[in-house]
Design goal:
The protein is an alpha/beta fold and 178 residues long. It has a single domain, classed as Rossmann fold. It has helices spanning 15-26, 54-65, 82-91, 118-130, 158-177, and strands at 2-7, 32-36, 68-72, 104-110, 134-135, 141-142. Strands 1, 2, 3, 4, 5 and 6 form a 6-stranded parallel beta sheet that branches. The longest helix is centred in the C-terminal third of the chain and has 20 residues, at 158-177. The termini are close together.
Length: 178
């Protein structure tokens, strides 16, 4: 089972990037989680659709090839980050070539507060549903980050590890149904 994980943060010490990295060790048997780097993807400009940028096409190809997608989003001003919206816009273009259509998607987020990017996750779920993705019903609002991660970005909370392990198991079952 090939799963693609996307962190919606460009920050070097991003908690959401640490989160998707930690999922690799928690994945159930038979699930391979590959993390895509969204850093090289330029800002969306519909004028560029005629000559699709190579980095964007590679990103779209990875989404199409994946059996499922995991997106970890931070929350900026009660919303998803602009960089995450940007890559989602690119992956859904050009019109009629939406890479997220019919993909199983697991959404999660971690933040410095207790709400775990809750508002951003609601918006992301709405956006993914609009794009035809099947969003897995899991509430994965993880926080506060200072109580979950050590200084190297490793998860130290047994409760969080158990929550993520269970969520990945549910996700694996949903992807198998596909």
């Amino acid at each position: 089972m090939n799963i693609l994980a996307i962190s919606g943060s460009l920050r070097k010490d991003s908690f959401n990037t640490a989160l998707v990295k930690s999922l690799q060790a928690l994945a159930p048997e038979g699930m391979q989680i590959d993390i895509v780097d969204i850093t090289p993807i330029k800002l969306f400009n519909q004028d560029d659709e005629a000559a699709f940028p190579r980095e964007v096409q590679n990103f779209k190809d990875k989404i199409v090839a994946a059996d499922g997608i995991i997106i970890a989003t931070p929350e900026y001003n009660h919303s998803i980050p602009g960089v995450l919206k940007n890559v989602i816009d690119w992956a859904s273009r050009p019109y009629g070539q939406n890479s997220f259509d019919k993909k199983k998607v697991l959404i999660m987020g971690v933040s410095i507060g207790k709400n775990g990017a809750m508002h951003a996750q609601v918006q992301l779920k709405e956006l993914m549903t609009y794009l035809g993705a099947e969003v897995i019903e899991q509430e994965l609002h993880i926080g506060p980050a200072s109580e979950i991660f050590d200084e190297k970005g490793a998860i130290t909370s047994a409760l969080t590890k158990a929550l993520l392990t269970k969520a990945l198991g549910v996700f694996a079952e949903k992807v198998k149904i596909n």
